[in-house]
Specification:
Three copies of one chain form a homotrimer. The first copy, chain A, is of the alpha+beta class. The radius of gyration of chain A is 19 Å and the shape is globular. The first copy, chain A, has a six-stranded antiparallel β-sheet with strand order 9-10-8-7-6-11, with helices on both faces. Chain A has a five-stranded antiparallel β-sheet with strand order 1-2-3-5-4. Chain A has two domains: about 25-145, 2-Layer Sandwich (Alpha-Beta Plaits); about 150-265, Alpha-Beta Plaits. The relative contact order of chain A is 0.14. In chain A, strand 1 (about 45-50) and strand 2 (about 55-60) form a beta hairpin. Helices cover about 35% and strands about 25% of the residues of chain A. The longest helix of chain A has 20 residues, at about 235-255. In chain A, helix 3 (about 90-100) crosses helix 4, helix 3 packs antiparallel against helix 5 (about 170-175) and helix 6 (about 190-205) runs antiparallel to helix 7 (about 235-255). At the A-C interface, helix 1, helix 6 and helix 7 of A face helix 1, strand 2 and strand 3 of C. Chains A, B, C: One of its GO terms (cellular component) is bacterial microcompartment. Chains A, B, C: It is found in: Bacterial microcompartment. Chains A, B, C: It comes from Megasphaera cerevisiae DSM 20462. Chains A, B, C: Its main location: other. Chains A, B, C: GO terms for molecular function: structural molecule activity.
Chain lengths: ~270, ~270, ~270
């Protein structure tokens, strides 16, 4: 009977305190199905949701009064992807999506967010001639997004993020300075002090070319508590640099708290 | 007996975990009485507190050494209103307060805050010839503040904010670019992606004039995870635009979590 | 039996919800020993950890590819100190450390952080001819850091921070504009409204010279919800100004929540 009562109490506690009370800032949830896409909202603009409180939306024809404020250029049909937690995963997912569809990147903005964590959220706008292309791109990005949370590791003290692409496309080029068509790697940690050591570890581990170094107060971040290194190069070298940083990052962030855990499943 | 034990356990759990463990970021508390004004602090500068961890203060005569740092211009008597959660509600409340008192807006600053939420806090400074005028303005703003949290809706994933004024005054003009004396409306959502659709919905719903479009990285916000649209126009049109956006906003934010709830009671 | 079951349930609840659910944002933890230094990580870069999720690191020879991105100037050996919560305490601790060692301040950056709180985190980089000097400086800073959290007071609504140095050195000069070799004081509060009154209180309490006034939107902060006043002068006057502000700050922040508590033990 004790066991039964214990379960009853636990259910009551979870219901009253909210199910996410114990979820670290770096982790996230989705109400969607296995593909990460939830479609029961009844608005034509709605495409779906995914990890990191990410929502995917489309507008078939943006009102002319907003076109200039939003710097949409020639496009009126847009896709919108944005979340509370994560800029890197969404940028990677949209990079895949623009490769696979007839769309272009209009803008990538990085709010200071992660729901109390050390990093960014995201707002990415995609342009298309036809709204069906925008919708397909947004769907693709939402579907692939969980993969790119795989090398986001977190504990109570902060987070680590690593990304790797064998061939960078337009979104990585625009948002992070990647060399188009070449392999791309990223190391990131918050608190930022750890990110400094990861950057040094990555460039010492293999022959890569630095395309961006971002820090809290000297540009590249929105005052997030992160140091981010972006680099291009041959795929073998880029991957080796990222992998070396993953090993070091887990040890250093682990010194401040529990062993850092992947948000989904590591892919690098 | 199970029921009795269950209650005992729940009380213990709440006591140990703190009563606010289940309070969404967009919600807020006050220790004040029904008017929202708490006066038992014993400092002449103190006026009261209200929702959003908002405090109201006055300084009868700011020290000359600070006057220039603070850009007070001709004023030495100031009223100060600032909170952790909410910039829109405080701006609306102070707009009412300056209409009703012999005071002027000196500055409106928007910290990146909301205690882990997606939006801003606020710091508003009011100037007056006489400290009694400043105090009256601060009291007025604190009293009316809960009303303007009425169309702030939140869930675990983010928040929506809507404001409407039949006749904008100096605070809305200075802080948000409203046309003085005309009706003013605002739509806002975090994550910012939802705010893009709300902006488009509002301008399509009625004939209004856009006076401001703010986004995380392109100005108008302090890197908050919000897109904010401000518009002026005839009162019927402005209200219609805001109302259309409320319907859409609740559906879209609801796709990321629970049904969004008003912080107090909707007024629009 | 009820009592036994109650404990069992509480343990289960704590395990499932995480032990930090009830820890206010302003409080912090360390896994380190009494000196605040944890050394069991197995990386030569690692020095230790301390309060505020602060980590201390060294790099014996920064890779040439990063030297320019990081603006290291003539240095290749660096010490790194950074945390999620607190910029003032880390700046004070590093100020002590550079006095005691053969090192120089390279940069001080202030992310918008404190894990959902109203203030900053920190990233401080120290240069040295020899990595053993950098390591000694980082160790010194980590050891003294808990002292400088002594006059950081917090409750659910926000925080207060006060610092005092009898003789400011290079870190206080570079980061906060202190006059080198003179006494230095700082008052700070979030929500920022309280910080305005503390600034006025401090300059009225004693004859000090203002060297910096920072606010959320007008410079000196990274959009944190704080007003910060920095001042130099004779040690008696500076201390008197700080002490007057402490009394007022506790009353005002206390009006928004519980009595503000020191993070460690007050030293001023």
């Amino acid at each position: 009977m004790d066991q039964e009562l214990l379960e009853k109490v636990m259910n009551q506690v979870k219901a009253e305190l909210g199910t996410n009370a114990a979820v670290p800032a770096a982790e996230t949830q989705t109400k969607g199905d296995a593909t990460g896409i939830n479609t029961a909202v009844g608005r034509t603009e709605f495409v779906g949701t995914s990890l990191g409180d990410t929502i995917g939306l489309v507008i078939a024809s943006v009102d002319p009064m907003l076109k200039d404020s939003m710097n949409l250029g020639k496009f009126r049909s847009i896709g919108i992807i944005g979340g509370r937690t994560g800029a890197g995963p969404q940028i990677m997912a949209v990079d895949d999506a623009v490769k696979a569809t007839n769309t272009e990147i209009i803008s990538v903005e990085l709010p200071r967010d992660t729901k109390g964590g050390a990093g960014h959220g995201s707002l990415i706008i995609i342009g298309a001639e036809d709204v069906s292309d925008a919708r397909r791109a947004v769907e693709t990005a939402l579907q692939v997004l969980p993969k790119y949370f795989g090398d986001v590791y977190g504990n109570d003290a902060g987070h680590l993020e690593f990304q790797y692409s064998a061939r960078a496309s337009y979104c990585l080029e625009k948002a992070l300075g990647a060399k188009f068509g070449k392999a791309f790697g990223m190391t990131c940690a918050g608190p930022a002090a750890i990110g400094v050591v990861l950057a040094d570890t990555a460039v010492k581990a293999a022959n890569v070319e630095v395309v961006g170094y971002s820090s809290p107060g000297n540009g590249g971040t929105s005052y997030s508590n992160e140091v981010i290194l972006c680099f291009s190069g041959d795929s073998g070298a880029v991957r080796q640099a990222v992998k070396a940083a993953i090993v070091v990052g887990k040890k250093l962030l682990g010194a401040l708290g529990e062993k850092p855990k992947s948000t989904t499943t590591p892919y690098i």
